Amino acid sequence: MAILVLGGAGYIGSHTVHALIEAGREVVVADNLVTGHRAAVHPKAKLYVGDLSDRAFLDDLLRNETIDGVIHFAAYSLVGESVGNPLKYYRNNLCGTEVLLEALVDHGVQNIVFSSTAATYGEPERIPILESDRTEPTNPYGETKLSMEKMFHWTDRAHGLRYVALRYFNACGALPDGSIGEAHDPETHLIPIVLQVALGRRERLDVFGGDYPTADGTCVRDYIHVCDLADAHIKALEYLERGGESDVFNLGNGVGFSNLEVVEAARAVTHHPIPSSIKDRRPGDPAILVASSEKAGRILGWKPQHTDLKEIIATAYRWHQSHPEGYGDR
Ligand code: UDP
């Protein structure tokens, strides 16, 4: 009996595969390797290269393997790109998931954990954000994830495929041994970009917006370590295996750091001045996103272990220092 991890060659997927294997699970990875990396896949996991919108590929995999649970990470996830190219996001995130769900229902799979996002909330009505708060995405990425949640809800109602949707806040950090980490091309996320400056791969950091209604005028985000996210997926899977009802959970640290505070923490970790300047706002960015993860603590028994921003950045720095070209496959 294996766990199927869709998108297991990507950033959060590869860390979750690692954690599953450490926990003694058998793992099958499916990834089209468009944004994922073959080298990120744990050697003990079996890799199928293909696309989840390819029904024949899924049928073949589900016939060959005995799958008793699925974790679904396979999606595009860049806010800015989604604003410029919304249909790419609808096609991949929504249409791909529809094909996946048909295949899972037909093959009798009963449990699925999948990546949702803080972007489902849009401009939050209060901080910290609760799962029951208003969801009104301000970009197509968040919109497709919210639609995915709804598709899972109705599929469960009709076919009994139970799910957990995990709304991540800002994923960051890397496996502490530095062997796997974040490798996007192009990179758009704050912490990797800051560290690229520290490593001399970029000259400076542009901070998007200095006139937000926050203490220092820059956006505030809730940074959650990728290993804590991986742990949450395992706990969510175990919850479904115990017969838990379908549900939605926030995953964050519950503490917000401004973009300038992140840069300051990175300066302390790297001992590099990290030159930066304030630029225009980036479209689609809410001012403050901070999670309440009380529900995940209460129901899943999840508690983040990496709560110190400098320690989180230090794990990312170790990865970027030892892998300046990422996985070297692009
Ligand atoms: N950000 C920035 N400069 C960059 C990249 C990101 O100022 O080069 C800001 C971005 O506008 C947001 C925060 O950093 O306020 C976190 O952005 P990121 O893309 O890392 O994650 P998101 O919050 O979009 O998921």
In DSSP terms, counting alpha (H) and pi (I) runs of 4 or more, how many helices? 10
- Low-confidence segments: none
User: Helix coverage percent of residues?
Assistant: 25-40%
Rg (C-alpha, Å): 19 Å
Describe the secondary structure blueprint for this structure.
Layout: E1 2-6, H1 11-22, E2 26-31, E3 46-49, H2 55-64, E4 67-72, H3 79-84, H4 86-106, E5 111-117, H5 140-159, E6 162-168, E7 170-172, H6 190-198, E8 205-208, E9 220-221, E10 223-225, H7 226-241, E11 247-251, E12 257-258, H8 259-270, E13 276-279, E14 288-289, H9 294-300, H10 309-322
Helix pairs in contact: 1-7, 2-4, 4-5, 6-8, 6-10, 8-10
Bound molecules: uridine-5'-diphosphate (UDP).
Structure description:
38% of the residues lie in helices and 18% in strands. It has ten helices and 14 strands. It has a seven-stranded parallel β-sheet with strand order 3-2-1-4-5-6-11, sandwiched between helices. It has a three-stranded mixed β-sheet with strand order 12-9-14. Strand 5 (111-117), helix 5 (140-159) and strand 6 (162-168) form a beta-alpha-beta unit. Helix 2 (55-64) packs parallel to helix 4 (86-106), helix 6 runs parallel beside helix 8 (259-270) and helix 6 crosses helix 10 (309-322). It is globular. Uridine-5'-diphosphate is lined by residues 79, 170, 188-190, 193, 205-208, 219, 221, 259, 282, 285.
